[in-house]
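Re: How this chain folds, sequence and tokenised backbone to follow

Filed under: protein folding, tokenised backbone structure, sequence and structure records.

Contents: The amino acid chain and a row of whole-number tokens, matched residue for residue.

Body of memo: The sequence and its backbone structure tokens, given next.
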Amino acid sequence: MIKGIEFLANLVVLQLVEIDVILGMDWLSKHKGTISCGDRTITLVNHQGKQVACQPQGSKPKPMVCNMEAKTLEEVTVVCEYPMCSQKNYWECHLIGT
């Protein structure tokens, strides 16, 4: 239940500390999920057509800084090469790498 409105879901228990539930794209699509990042709101519609909007409880998470840098293909480090691989035998090589 979310704010007293019932939503159907098959959940799998995970041993995570700060996460209550992870909802996949299929589930969110089925429930017409809309995520508004600006006001930190998720709007959902249940199987009976009832709509609910919810926001996270508690304080905002600390900002996270990500750093990316552009490189040319030649600058990318190759961990493992498969010289026998080509587009022709992609699946065969893909199985080798697993």
